[in-house]
Design goal:
Number of strands: 0
Distance between the termini: 95 Å
Helix content: 40-55%
Low-confidence stretches: none
Order of helices and strands: H
Mean pLDDT: 86
Structural class: mainly alpha
Length: 81
């Protein structure tokens, strides 16, 4: 008879299986990333031409308009019944 209870053995095997699967999946992903980047070649950087100075930017701003005064009508009388 084993000194470790069956439930603990099951838990340990489950953790071992989980760790093994995680290692396999991550290794596969890293291999795939390395494989994809292995075939790539560095692209030569384009030669920069003499750049023209940037043209000035003009912002069009609308002037604030004076708000017209509100004209109120004569108050109505309300009768409560």
């Amino acid at each position: 008879m084993s000194p470790v209870p069956v439930q603990l053995q099951g838990f340990l095997w489950c953790m071992l299986l989980f760790a093994l699967c995680a290692v396999i999946v991550h290794s596969f992903k890293l291999i795939l990333i390395g494989w994809r980047s292995f075939g790539r070649q560095k692209t030569p950087e384009p030669v920069l031409k003499q750049e023209k100075p940037p043209e000035p930017v003009y912002y069009l701003v609308e002037r604030k308009k004076k708000r017209p005064k509100a004209e109120y009508a004569e108050p109505k009388q309300i009768n409560f019944q």
